[in-house]
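Supplementary Note 3. Input sequence used for the single-chain structure prediction.
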Amino acid sequence: MHPPWLTTKAPDFCTIAVFGCTPILLYMAEKSDCFLPELITNRDQSLQCACWAQSDMQPVLKQVQEILRSSQQLPIELEHQSRLLRQTLTNKLSGHQFTCANELTVADFALYPAITSITTPSINLRTFPPLAQRLEQMDSIGFVRRGLTIP
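The predicted structure, written as discrete structure tokens, is reproduced below.
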């Protein structure tokens, strides 16, 4: 059964469902022909990074946020895993204007929610300068700011 809120007809006229943040981003990027690099190696890197954000980063960071909201102490294993993910992302962003290639891609939009939610009591965003810079960069884009005001 497909979610009624978003389905589309594929070229062979079979109905496909689009769900989750990254699939929606990819669908919209393909549909609008924006934010996907034309060079195949850069496109592949962008798609891998966007999928990594959803499959590896978001579940861990969501779990961290839920524990912190309940005022519980973060288990050491989760703190360690969270720190490793942030360090991996920091290494990925270091020395690059954007996440993949030298252009704004779906990877930047997929990672943005993760970057905005990475502060924990023991991990300060300032200890990861590339993350802080990326957050500032994304916040400075007009359509990103407008999108954040939509309830």
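DSSP finds six helices and two strands in the chain. The beta strands are 7-9, 15-17.
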